[in-house]
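ok so dumb question maybe but i'm new to this and my supervisor (M.) told me to 'just get the structure for Cytochrome b reductase 1' and walked off. so i did the thing. is this what she meant?? sequence i used:
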Amino acid sequence: MHTRAFVQRSRSYDSDEHERGAGACEWCEYALVITLATILLIGVSALTVFWVFFYREGYAWADDIPEKQFNLHPTLMVAGFITFSGFSVLLYRICRCFRRIYVKLLHAIFHALAFPCIVIGFLAVLDYHNKKGINNFYSLHSWIGFVAMGLFGLQYAVGFFSFLLLLICNKGTAGFRASLVPVHAAFGILTFVLGVAACLTGLTEKAIFTLGSDTYASMSQEAIVMNAIGMSVVAVAVLVLYTVRGTGGYRLRPAAQHPS
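this is what came out, is it supposed to look like this??
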């Protein structure tokens, strides 16, 4: 009897140590991924601004320098679709200790920051095309971007109405809001992925049209910077999708309960 009790107690201690080790590793993984994602989300916008000022002569909104007006398009679209939208997705993993309503408000705020970026970025390129006599919505990049903008606007409207306004009648709408969560989450990830695709195709299109195929193929400094922006966008997408993989994302296992 004493031997059996000793074995059971030893297994219990081993299990406790295993759970603590697994929990520590999972927290380290969580902290590493969130830190890298945050750095990249901010860095990709900073790198885009650097590219525009160093190689494309900055920004403007004037008839005599439409090229500088165009520069608003990639900068604001990267900020809206990648940086702000990426943070809005990550909030549900970063703000683990906040009340749910605060997380929803922060989620809505980041989407609210992304909204004017996307709208102004779209108007900038539309006006640029009209000034230069370029056809609108002829490329794959523009088609993907148009769908991404439509889904973003729909997501924001549905999310604002369903998860913020309907909280006024919390108990009466709880079931409806709960059923809408997986749909809203799935379309949110789809919108983010389409935004990434739009940014990547847009960067490639801009590089070939502006630098020319020969200069781009020769790996000039600007081409390297533009490719670095594109790879940063890819890295952001990988990390953001990794944090929200499956349906539960990061769910740290609770400590096992053992009989005394």
